[in-house]
Structures are given as C-alpha cells and as structure tokens.
Amino acid sequence: MLEKEKLPLEDVRVLELGTLLAGPFSGRLFADFGAEVIKIEPPDKPDPMRKWGKSKDGIGLWWPVQSRNKKSITLNLRTEKGQELFKDLVREADIVIENFRPGTMEKWGLSYAELSAENPRLIMMRTSGFGQTGPYKERAGFGSIGEAMGGLRHVTGFPDREPTRAGISIGDTLAALFATIGCLTALHERKSSGRGQVIDTAIYESVFSVMESLVPDYLLADYIRERTGNILPGVAPSNIYRTADDTYIVIGANADAVFRRLCEAMGEPELAEHPDYATHEARGKNQKVLDVRIEEWTSSLNANVALQRLEKHGVPSGMIYTVKDIVEDRHYQERDMIIPIEHPELGEFPMPGVVPKLSRTPGQIKQPGASILGEHNKDVYEKLLGLSENYLTELNEDNVI
After folding, report:
1. The domain 13-210+335-397: what is its CATH number?
2. How far is residue 165 from each of residues 42, 151, 156, 235, measured CA to CA in Å?
3. Which of 227, 262, 369, 389 is 20 to 30 A off residue 303, Cα-Cα?
C-alpha cells in the first residue's frame, strides 16, 4: 500500500488572531492545505463569527466553515501574562495573522519588531481597511468600505439607480486571497534569506487591484466607468437572456469564433458575416440591437433546451444558480464541491469543498470549526509549550486563558 502524501503546508504553524472575515479566511486557506492553524480568541470576547449568519439549534452555520481544520485556544492579549505567553507561541510559529485596526498590536507590545526579536523567521500577515501606513491607516475599515473606496461599488448595479453591493463580503475575501498569496511568497523567500517579513494588505487596495483598466481608462482616454447592469460596454454578446419558461440564462460569446458558433446554434449562421456583427468592435457598437436579437431566439425556447443547443455548439452558457441548483448539480457533486463532515452537535454538516484542487497533494477538510471556545488549550499549552496543568489553572483563574 502506497504511503499517503503529506499535505503541502503540514510543516507550517499559524497563529490566527483575526476576527470575522479577512484574517480568518486566510487562516482557513492555510488550514485546508495542512497548516496547523491555532485560532486565538480572548476568553471573555470570542470571535463574533461564532454567531454570525443563520443558525440551527442555536449554533451558527458560518463558523464551522470559516474555522474548519483549526485549533481553538483562548488568550487575553490585553494582559502582561497573555502577551508573554503569546511571545512563547511566536517562538514556535511561522506566521501570525491579524486584522485589527493598525496600532492595536503595537499597543499590546506585540509589534513586528518585538515579535521578530523573538523569532526572526516570523512572517506577520496584517490585513486592515487601509493598510499600515498612509493618512487613512487609523480609520476603521470593513469590507463594504473597501469595496466602495476601491472602486467596485460605483460600477456595480444599473445606471438608473443607486450603486449596489455584491451579495457576499467580496472585499474581505479578496483581501484574504491577496494576503495569502503574499504570505506564501514570503514563505518561499524565507528559504533563501532565513528571515520573515510583514505582509501589509489593505482591503481597499485588494478591491482596487481587480478593477482592470479603470485608471488608464480615465487618465489616458478620459473615460469614467459607470454602472452598466449585466453588460460590459463594447463586449458583446455577453448578457443574461430571458427564456420561454420565464427564467434567464447567461451567454458569453464575445470572441469572434464563439460568436460564429452562437449564430449556428441560433440557426442564423449568416449573422456572423453581417458587417454589424462580424468583428468584436462592430458587435460592441451594435450591442443593444444584437442582444435584442439573441433574446428573441432564447425566448422561443425553454432554458434547458437553449442550454443544450448552446452546449452542443460550444458556446459558453449557463443558468443563474440558486443554492438549490448548486446542491443538486451533478458537476458540483462529482468534483467534491460539497463535502459532508460530521459536526459534534449538528451531525452531518455540508461543507464547501477545497479550492484550488492539487493533483497530488489536495487539501482536506478534517473537522468543522471548534464549537467549544478554547477546546485545544490543553493540547497547545501543555504539548507545544510544556506548561503544567497547575500553571494553566492559575492562568485560567487570572483570566489570561
């Protein structure tokens, strides 16, 4: 029997201090690929994420996902003993994740300079609304503010109404992804230098980084992007189209070759040669008229029939899924994108699968987020730091853990 491959990050230990979204999402990504992620919460003020979102039997349903594969310990960093104990943990760690307002760690005597003096190889991932420097650094900054000031909110929605938001906390998630990329880069660099460094990730900058050619559009072409609903101006056809059964499908056929295939699926191959539609530029100029013509075709067919025809001709298309559609979709099932995990109180718990998929050392979901605050105190403090049971009792009585 072949020996099972180790997970790629099994030799990495992470101390996660963050709350809610941006920091803990990074911790989840590390934990999914084998890192030992130790989630640290104050004994008197646990992460609000434990209660966020929908609940069942009084148990929050977001927490088991966000904190999966992590260990849970308690530690009061507002106390001198707690700060010293944290430094003990830092000596055994590779990464510290925090997403407090800038200056908080420094106030506790836990700046990077002080922590790296204990462990020069330490990498510190710092995620905040506006970064660790600059005139806005001390502002409170949630994901929604980053989405607004990063440029995303202004271009989201329809032009005849106010800006809207995406239905998820996309600013926090983008920041977590960029922070994780930065941290993995620093881990790689550490192999040659032997030294850690700070990863400074701002939510607004993470949003701004995915805003495509927003700035040169303005500075070089005097164009300010506005809300355009379900289209991108000049990119056609790429829209949602009503079907005969009163639903919508998405079609993306803006490349020349794909547009020709769409015309064949519609039974109008000659349309691909029409001067109004033959090129990307021409289709962009005649976008509205072209979309009307395509919707005349989709409106004559039920959604499934239209999608089958589009698939047969190799045209990118799809339904606008609800969560019910996602759960029932065989492609999601075949690629293990919904994985049942045993929850100690709720029984079988459906988890979103691990992304991305590695061919030889894929990530794993071993356990849901710890439902008991400080569940792994004994494991971490006794086994990792070698503290005695009597001393742990003393720390508990002093509200340090």
Report:
1. 3.40.50.10540
2. 32, 12, 7, 22
3. 227
Residue pLDDT, tens place only, 133-154: 999 999 988 899 999 999 999 9
Percentage of the chain exceeding pLDDT 70: 99
Partnered with residue 252 across adjacent β-strands are 238
pLDDT in tens, 180-206: 999 999 999 999 999 999 999 999 999
As beta bridge partners, residue 13 has 36
Q: Which two tokens stand for residue 139?
A: 């502002």
Domain ranges of the chain: 13-210+335-397, 238-319
DSSP code for 156? S
Tell me, yes or no, if 217 is annotated catalytic. no
Token pair for 265: 């699926």
Q: What is the DSSP letter of 124?
A: E
Please pick, among 32, 47, 94, 172, the residue that the annotation labels catalytic: 172
Length of the chain, in residues: 401
First-to-last CA distance in the chain? 44
- The label of the residue with tokens 């045993």 reads 342
Residue 141 has a pLDDT of 87
The whole-angstrom separation of Cα 274 and Cα 256 is 12
Distance CA 381, CA 297 (A): 66
* Superfamily name and number for 238-319: formyl-coa transferase, domain 3 (3.30.1540.10)
Query: Could you give the angle at which helices 303-312 and 256-265 cross, rounded to 10 degrees?
Result: 130
Sign of CA dihedral 104, 109, 110, 111: positive
Q: How far is CA 7 from CA 25, 47, 262, 305, in A?
A: 19, 28, 43, 43
Burial class (CB in 10 A: 0-12, 13-18, 19+), 88: middle
Cα–Cα distance list, 251 to 4, 246, 258 (Å) = 42, 16, 11
Q: Is 288 exposed, middle or buried (0-12, 13-18, 19+ CB in 10 A)?
A: exposed
pLDDT in tens, 279-305: 999 999 999 999 999 999 999 999 999
Q: Which tokens go with 322?
A: 């609800």
